[in-house]
Design a protein that fits this description.
Elements: E1 3-8, E2 10-12, E3 18-25, E4 34-39, E5 47-52, E6 59-61, E7 69-74, E8 79-84, E9 93-101, E10 104-107, E11 111-115
Parallel strand pairs: 2-11
Antiparallel strand pairs: 1-3, 3-8, 4-5, 4-9, 5-6, 7-8, 9-10, 9-11
Length: 117
């Protein structure tokens, strides 16, 4: 079955960096666009962060993270990554990787990122 297993996250000071990882299994990873979203504590909505096309040639970022975050993927090891630099307190959220397979969405378990002094 489709699985997305996340790692990374934690507590970092403003201006710091973190890297999130998302390891996939159960589907043809190399054929799928991978997405990253985040959810701020107390809010129901998932905020789009970034996506990367199946071959890694195309990436799109939200305006709030553009220039600070970089999404990448390794199709050999079935993983996608979100490198985050110049983190701000407003980046504090739970981050999720996401994929759509056969019209169904799958989510990782979430990685908590806290940006604070």
């Amino acid at each position: 079955q489709v699985r997305l297993v996340q790692s990374g996250g934690g507590l970092v000071q403003p201006g710091g960096s973190l890297r999130l990882s998302c390891e996939a299994s159960g589907f043809a990873f190399e054929d799928k666009t991978m997405h990253w979203y985040r959810r701020v504590s107390g809010k129901d909505q998932y905020e789009f962060v970034a996506f990367i096309s199946f071959n890694g040639h195309n990436t799109v970022y939200s305006d709030s993270v553009k220039g600070r975050f970089t999404v990448s993927r390794d199709n050999t090891n079935y993983a996608t990554y979100l490198q985050m630099h110049s983190l701000k307190p407003e980046d504090t959220a739970v981050y999720f990787c996401n994929v759509q397979v056969l019209d169904q969405e799958y989510w990782g378990e979430g990685s908590t990122v806290t940006v604070s002094l």
